[in-house]
Amino acid sequence: MIHRLFARSWTRTLVAAFVALVFSIAITSIVLSISGFNPPSTFQAMFEFGKEPDSIVNTLNKAAGYYLSALAVAVGFRMNLFNIGVDGQYRLAAMLAAAAGGAWSLPPVLHQLVIIIVAVLVGGLWAAVPALLKVTRGVSEVISTIMLNFIATGIIAYLLNPGRLAVQLGPNNIGTKTISRSGRVPGTPFPGTDLKLYSLLVIAILAGIGFWFMINRTRFGFDLRATGLSQSAAVASGVDARRMVVMAMVISGAIAGLIGMPQLLGESYTYSLNFPTGIGLTGIGIALLGRNGPVGIAFASLLWAFLDVSSQILDFNDIPKEIVAITQAAVLLSVVVVYEVVSRVGQRIDQRHVAAQLGEVAA
Amino acid sequence: MRRGVKIVAVAASAVMALSAAGCGGKKATTGGGGGGDGKKTLKVGLAYDVGGRGDKSFNDAAYAGLQKVQQELKLDVKDLEAKEGESDNDKIQRLELLAKSGYNPVVAVGFVYATALGKVAPKYPNTKFAIVDDNTIQQPNVTDLLFAEQEGSYLVGAAAAKKSQTGNIGFVGGVQTPLIKKFEAGYVAGAKKINPKIKIQIKYISQPPDFSGFKDPAKGKTIAQGMYDQGADVVYVAAGLSGSGSLEAAASAKKWFIGVDSDQWQTASAAEKPYVLTSMLKRVDTAVFNFVKSVGDGTVQKGDLRFSLKNDGIDYATSNPSALGDMTTTLNDLKQQIISGKITPPEK
Which N-terminal residues, if any, form the signal peptide (chain B) (predicted)? Predict the structure, then answer.
């Protein structure tokens, strides 16, 4: 019975995720108790606040960005390629797409499409830089993508200036020219709140389905997974490793380019000084938490977004909201450790089962 | 197995990124007690910019304003802090949380709240809102608190040029935004007025959209240190919490430091005090004080409230008289000329 349950990898993942969650709640409770707060009432406050309509909308909207970000990271992770540069890729993409959308006036549908295509292209091209550096000069993508994040920040700071791509939005705020109505995507109403769901949540869902299909049902996905499991074996069986690196990086960057789109076309309409930052780095953690699978990442990004949103109520109750960062960190570290443990236990159960069967045959 | 190690390493670095983002060191506070002695309790909500309470500068100035009101009115204060990199929806929720829970007035500290306030204010017509550093939201229940930072920066620029013996001074900005460039422009103009040939080193800690420059004392220290090493003997630091690091550098180099927003001589340690020449005072405290009081009296004004040298909303600190010496005569003279309109410090 236990063997049959453990034979499936998704049950292992589920068990690991559950244990990790319990573990992180325990750690958070300890920290809360030490700081003199009551853990059950704290969690209850977070849960109560988290299920208000406003919070649900905010959680889903946030999760869309996190999900795309984690998918972008996961494409690389699947073949042991560490794209830490998702952050720079999405910010540069969102900024240039916003500038293009603000500068050009196009009929609806075409306008949105052009903005999204610009974002995907910019993200992909920016990610191609570390890929080419890796395959031609052997530069580690971890180092180059991290550095390219800083370079992206510099480029954005240079371009986001009045007289270049920015206009003054208020006495102290600057941003790209606001995208006209024809380029926006109206939000979807949600019962009980004025906040709107980003309609481009659909992009995240489609990207998730596309990711699953690409990894599991295409030749490219097979090569990707093969390279991730053993590069030498993959090369020996005819996979062009250099081509794979470039392709995976560019796809990762292209998905990264989508991260800012729900926010840009659904709410901000401009890339200004208060466009959200740091989503690309959060995505790394979420991809790990979701075990690089499209379903796991969906749950992970929802959990992450929920924790972010409900942290507001902690501040309101005079509980430091950095507590949430502790929960997130604990869940992340424990899921990595717990998964290792669970899969070893799983292996042992497998072995024992096989041994038992062999024993029966022998007897 | 090597793959597992690599994953753990990446997980660890992701956690480090998290904890770096989460460090704010905000201490929990106990809210104001309930009423009971007949005085009406005013529930005031405060929504901070990145950095939050404890930056000894911009955000603290807002809180100081409330503390002053507290001596006259009974206040129940709730102050909430922004997270770095958050979206407008988070800000909307924060302002709504305050308005919904009956906090009235609600003060949004920083222009980053503009978009969010534009959406929340019409929904709560009976709540009075104020926003610091922005006037794009024109609603009957919104008061805009604006400051002429270039005027005060002009004065401290003049002070720096007067004090400098090397003819070399510095400016450290937190984040290179239009707002902080106003500080720079005023400072440069004021210094050039005193000494047209003065050398001015200008550096910003971070570039938008990276707002960490307002809360990075370590970088504030390194950059100021670099300026002192290159011959500057006075450095003006407009960088929020990061300024505390610069002050450390000033004290260890035994050179002059000019603070910003709050009077940073007051909050400096005994060892650092002698090196605080002056501070450019942006009286967010006065603005918040007046606003909250006017809500208490029912005399609240909507629209733009501009604070400048003229109405003491901007000033320079004279808490370290031995350092300023007799230059206050020159500074007060310049101040009068700005008030009378003879000098108009540039905004960019």
Answer: 1-20
